[in-house]
Design goal:
about 290 residues, alpha+beta, Beta-lactamase
């Protein structure tokens, strides 16, 4: 009996020792990463000082929670970044039984708009599944596919989902994408770097809509074909799940970079710059600086 008691005490002591080692290691990792991110923050300060335009930056090491933020709450027109929460709204609608991924949506003349995407060249009357439209909206940033989905769900449902399900207080959908007439009178879709970062982290952690839905959304984001911003200076074998946004004097990218050292979120929103090429390089430089951490 005494021997058994001694063995239990030894086991407890060993477990306490192991726990202490784990905690110490975790503290060391966080402290080390914090030091690295302090250096990165100074480098980003220098890059920002040379950028002739507005910018908002949200970078977060997902494992440690360490973040580098500049103007993360600053409101920007979202351009095509709004397609990420629109995608999440579609997944919510499927979960609630409002629609199915196999439902077909008919293309009409009203849906067709300029900018990114190939659906604008298709004849009115063609129909596409919801699943096809979601993939086109994200992977090719198809504006017509986006308008077909927003028409299917409705602005009221989408904005209510933004607020109540996605916990977005700023991000909204006030008009169709490429509705320049509404934009010219001040009706705008808005977001922040911080809210984009938050929705990406929820997807990464499997907490947006459901674990299965989050995995599917992440896989779609990984197929992004527009790679001239966040992935711009990254090695070809580095995986990025992201979504770009581009309009007149607006250039954004928001995504998750997967590395052997750990995965992290990068959201960079820019506006009022001289040339779009400068903004794209700026986003690429910020991304590469974070990648080196």
């Amino acid at each position: 009996m005494i021997g058994k008691k001694i063995r239990i005490e030894i086991i407890i002591l060993v477990l306490i020792a192991i726990l202490g080692i784990v905690i110490s290691h975790g503290y060391y990792v966080v402290r080390t990463r914090k030091q690295v991110y302090d250096v990165i923050s100074r480098e980003i300060d220098e890059i920002r000082s040379k950028f002739n335009g507005e910018s908002a930056i949200y970078i977060k090491d997902i494992r440690t929670g360490i973040a580098v933020q500049y103007n993360e709450g600053m409101t920007f027109p979202s351009a095509s970044l709004v397609k990420i929460p629109v995608m999440a709204s579609v997944f919510h609608a499927v979960k609630e039984g409002k629609i199915s991924f196999n439902d077909r949506v008919k293309l009409t003349k009203r849906h067709k708009v300029g900018g990114s995407g190939k659906l604008k060249r298709y004849r009115s009357g063609n129909s596409f599944t919801v699943e096809q439209l979601v993939n086109l909206m994200i992977v090719e940033s198809d504006n017509t596919a986006t308008n077909m989905l927003t028409d299917l769900l409705g602005f009221e449902y989408i904005n209510r989902t933004f607020r109540e399900k996605l916990n977005l207080s700023v991000t909204n959908l006030s008009r169709d994408v490429m509705d320049l007439r509404s934009r010219n009178i001040g009706i705008e879709n808005l977001t922040t770097a911080g809210e984009m970062g938050g929705i990406l982290e929820a997807i990464y952690r499997g907490k947006l809509v459901s674990d299965d839905a989050s995995k599917k959304m992440l896989s779609i984001l990984k197929e992004q074909k527009i790679n001239d911003r966040i992935p711009r200076y990254l090695p070809d074998d580095v995986l990025v799940a992201h979504k770009t946004g581009l309009m007149n004097k607006l250039c954004h990218d928001a995504g998750i970079i997967f590395t052997r050292k750990g995965d992290f979120i990068v959201c960079v929103l820019t506006g009022k710059y001289r040339k779009t090429s400068y903004a794209k390089r700026f986003i690429g430089e910020i991304s590469y600086t974070a990648f080196r951490a």
